[in-house]
Amino acid sequence: MNMNSSYQIITEAACGLSQDFLKQAELLVVPMGFTIGDQNYDQVPQKGNSDLHSIYQLLRTASSAAAVTFDTSDLIEFLRPALARGKDLLYIGISDALGETWHNATRALANLQREFPTRRIEAINSMTLSAGQGILLQHLSKLQQKGASLLEAKEWAESNVPHIHSLVAIQNPDFLVQSFKGNFSNSQNQILQITEGQLLFKEQTENRQEMVSCLFKELQQAASLGTIQSVSIVHADCEKDAQVLKQMIQKQNLTDMISISFLEPIFGCQFGPDTLGLFYEAE
Fold it and tell me: How far apart are CA 101 and CA 93, in angstroms?
């Protein structure tokens, strides 16, 4: 079947996918930004490792940092041209419990639906963020390429959101406490889990080595219960830890579908430097 071009898949810039993939898949990417100190930045997905390393170096000594979400009016202006060209819209966004992004997006989509009543506009709450959302987007893109309708793609995503598992190992709790509301520890080296879109404390570790081991053991346990489809490891300027985790997974042959990438600075501002994220798809 040929690609179904009747609808446009839309997501946010911090979706765990490379700029090359987003362009090749013809996904429409909503700009996002962040601030470090008094400096404003536009989010560029994986612009370059050296650029992101420099940003995280700044973040380590910054007096303040924050993610900057888009507002409703900006998103309306951004999406209106696609609707004017006759496209339907399928929006997939960050969990509503992890910021204002989802709320702003759904308000914008509701306004656009009133403006374009003959167009179909649908939204999917990914119940995760970063590379967890990226895993879903890769599947949605493949479905669209194979000719799936908008509603078929949405139904698949909603059925498979529970199969995406998201763990985040953080070193510095100060960023976390300033960014999120939830059941967090104020201690260093803790593992958090995103469950039904909520960021929850999972366990405390003694050091970074134990943090990496805990992430691996979680994946190992999941593999004992079912098939691991794919794994995405993200890091906030701690690639060595990411590589160690990847080697542990490969040694046990849990899956050969493993990617490593930088955690987007938008989330780096919220979780802090040296964060290590593990996102995987399991049956």
Answer: 7
In tens, the pLDDT along 136-165 reads 999 999 999 999 999 999 999 999 999 999
DSSP 155-183: HHHHHHGGGEEEEEEES-HHHHHHH--SS
SS3 202: strand
Share of the chain above pLDDT 90, in %: 76
CB burial of residue 181 (10 Å; 0-12, 13-18, 19+): exposed
129 is written with which tokens? 């963020």
Is residue 281 helix, strand or coil?
A: strand
**In terms of pTM, does the model score above 0.90?**
yes
Tokens of 29: 């990417």
- The token duo for 61 is 């000594």
Question: Of 275, 273, 270, 282, whose CA–CA distance to 98 is shortest?
Answer: 270
